[in-house]
Amino acid sequence: MTPEIRIDLTGGVLTMTLARPDKKNALTNDMYGALADTIEQAQQDRRIRVLLVQGDGDMFTAGNDIGEFAAIAAGKHGGERHVHRFLHALANSTVPTVAAVNGKAVGVGTTMLLHCDYVVLGQDSQLITPFVNLALVPEAASSHLLPLRIGHVRAFEMFALGEPLDAQTAVAWGIANKVVGNDQLRPEARRMAEKLATRPPGSLSAMKKLMRDAEKLVSQMHSESARFEERLASAEAREAFQAFAEKRKPDFTRLDGQ
Ligand code: COA
């Protein structure tokens, strides 16, 4: 398993730590693979009562590794794409999942929270969904889950503009449970995970299953993936990835929407 995902099982809580801080925990194919394996195995392992996800460094995650997006767009990424297995594992998981979000949660960093059951935000955290800014479309069934959670107009604004949502607003809108001081983030998330781990696991997972339509979520993920793959291959996306690599703003004015 890649060292960029650290796994620890203590007291029934399996913690998955995104550990690539020099790249702001941007998620690579190997990292998705490790997360997918862990979530899949947790469904079978009776020692695991709760999953907890957190990020090292100054932010939760900068989202998908953009270099890997560019490689896929250029047809240079061979082998299995574990992101799909990761997203389906999230949709199908019946293990209660807690998230501790420090700093920015970009792209899939925010959309994965819609699959978590208890979300704690640090006071400086920001949720950002810049899919359109990258000429892509939302994923992780967020095109269904986000409007359902916060209403169409707010979800449209978050997706279309990709501007940061602050922690207090995220709680007010129902994306997260609470905001705590940064130094309290991990202890608070851990405290909640341990509390959940004392509840009857069969009952918790049956409840979680009833609360989520996993089949609908996976079907939405398939629809999103089809659009996502088209967008990845677009001239707009090539310009967005190139601009990121060159540390400049993208210029979409010359492109005609194809
Ligand atoms: N993919 C690949 N590398 C990334 C990355 C990503 N999503 N996000 C950050 N990095 C890398 C940077 O390229 C930089 O690498 P370098 O040190 O080799 O130049 C390093 O991580 C630090 O990032 P930097 O941009 O200097 O940090 P920052 O604190 O100024 O800004 C972000 C952080 C997250 C605001 C900014 O990096 C960003 O916008 N990243 C892209 C986010 C994104 O669009 N993700 C995809 C969502 S679908």
Briefly say what this structure is.
The chain is built from eleven helices and nine strands.
What would you say this structure looks like, in words?
By secondary structure, the protein is an alpha/beta fold. The protein is 45% helix and 15% strand. It has one domain: 2-enoyl-CoA Hydratase, Chain A, domain 1 (Alpha-Beta Complex), CATH 3.90.226.10. It has eleven helices and nine strands. Strands 1-2-3-4-6-9 form a six-stranded mixed beta sheet, with helices on both faces. α5 (142-150) crosses α6 (152-161) and α5 crosses α10. The protein is globular. Coenzyme A (COA) binds at residues 23-24, 26, 62-67, 104, 106-107, 130-131, 134. Coenzyme A (COA) is lined by residues 23-24, 26, 62-67, 104, 106-107, 130-131, 134.
Jot down its keywords.
single chain; 258 residues; alpha/beta; 2-enoyl-CoA Hydratase, Chain A, domain 1; 6-stranded mixed sheet; 3-stranded mixed sheet; 45% helix; 15% strand; globular; binds coenzyme A; ECH/Chromodomain_protein
Structural class: alpha/beta
In sequence order, what are the helices and strands, one letter per element?
EEHEHHEEHEEHHEHEHHHH
From the alpha carbons, calculate the radius of gyration and give it in angstroms: 18 Å
Widest sheet: strand order?
1-2-3-4-6-9
Main location: other
Protein name: Enoyl-CoA hydratase
GO molecular function, one term: delta(3)-delta(2)-enoyl-CoA isomerase activity
Keywords: Isomerase, Peroxisome
